Amino acid sequence: MITKIIIDNFMAHEHTELELGPGVTILTGSNNTGKSAVVEALRCLATNPARSPNPALYIRHGAKEARVEVEVDDGTRVVWVRTKRWAKYEVWAPDAEEPEEYHKLQGRVPEDVARVLRLDQVELETRKDSVDVHLGNQRDPVFLLNQPDSVMAEFFAASTESAHLLAMQNALKIRVRDAKREERALLDQADRVGSDLDRLAPLPDINRRMEQAEDLEKEATALERAIPALESGLAEHRALVAALDREQALGRVLAGILPPPPVQDVDRLKRHIGSMESVSAQQAQAARSAGALAGLGTPPDTADTAPLRNLLRDLAGTVATLNQTSRQQTALAGLTAPPDREDTTRLSGMVDQLYILRSRQKRLARLETVLGNIAEPPAPSPLDKLGNTVTEIAVLTNKISERQAEMETLETDLQSVVVAMEERIRAIGCCPVCGGDLTTDSFLDHGCRHGA
């Protein structure tokens, strides 16, 4: 029974799909909407009209070919393709990847197509045209109702003629005999195939071991993805350890430096020193004056002291000049001759070093200020877990190598089995159940399962 009709570029239909349910399907609609074209598409599929009428009339304007496809209840699909020059059939078995194609038909319908469609016409002995008991035209009644009674009688008599029945019986006997012969051949072939399949018994174990190898490969892939993160963690740990070592060395250097003394105000001290120097000078002058006046007698009566005052003033100036000269002489007496000028390169280097040391001292002071706000570095974590992880990675790496070696061995064994299987399948030639093409890929994928 037809369950689905697909029409592409056939007459007025660009693309039409009809899902047929159980029972009767009725097409309704206005005139010139393509109802008769659906019936004509089924007639072309069932009869493959050759050149009358013109095949181009079936192809929709602007298209290169027309396609009529039906699907029957067992899943088989039959496609009729019509171009302006040729026609062909495609038969798609259930779950088939490639169709069986029929070319060079010369107006005939292949037996395989007719067997799937079951839309054969009934041939009469006295009539050239066959009687279509499945499809009728739009304006014609059900088959033969518009024909003479003699034609109807001939049609019904054709189904009850003894000769026709005997011929059918003989044909049935021949088909039964051929079927039994083919059955015995298929049983023998099935026994041979069964013995060959026994050789493939290790395949489940190989498949199980391959699944185990795939699981190990997945674990190895996961570990490989985890290794970069672990390496990043190790690099970060090494960087932190190096930074900690540098900070500790800098702390040890700063620990031996004494803090600078607090800066005191020296202006008051300078004033005291200046006052002491002034008092010392006044005491020295008073002592000299007392020594000079010790040998003097009693002063005479008071007289006009203006000349004396002037004389004393002059004497005081002379004494001051002598004192100053005496002090300069005393100060210069202990001096030696000025030395010759020395090379100041070393002194310049020492000055440069002094400036460098002052700059370092300022930088160390800034570092001390900055480091005072830095918290203590964290204590290094123990590396026991990391060592265990590295050990586990090494063990897993060894296991991966072993599993890869086992996988290579399994692939070698599987390759030998596949080669033997290909040789045996080439020797068999076709599927012993359905007679279809039998390949190694289809056998390994689905074991040549059949929908029927």
Mean residue pLDDT: 79
Beta-sheet strand percentage? 5-15%
Distance between the termini: 15 Å
Strand order of the largest sheet: 2-1-3-4-5-6
Shape label: rod-shaped
Helix content: 55-70%
Q: What's the number of extended β-strand segments?
A: 6
Radius of gyration computed on alpha carbons: 62 Å
Largest sheet: 6 strands, antiparallel
Number of helices: 10
What structural class is derived from the secondary structure elements?
Answer: alpha+beta
Contiguous low-pLDDT stretches (5 residues minimum) are none
Report the order of strands and helices: EEHEEEEHHHHHHHHH
Describe this structure in words.
- The protein is of the alpha+beta class and 452 residues long.
- Among the domains are: 2-120, P-loop containing nucleotide triphosphate hydrolases (Rossmann fold); 203-254 and 378-446.
- It has helices at residues 35-47, 111-117, 149-158, 162-198, 203-255, 267-293, 306-333, 345-372, 384-428, 440-446; strands at 2-10, 13-19, 66-72, 77-82, 87-92, 100-102.
- The chain has a six-stranded antiparallel β-sheet, covered by helices on one side.
- Helix 5 packs antiparallel against helix 9.
- The longest helix is centred in the middle third of the chain and has 53 residues, at 203-255.
- The relative contact order is 0.06.
- The model has no long low-confidence stretch (mean pLDDT 79).
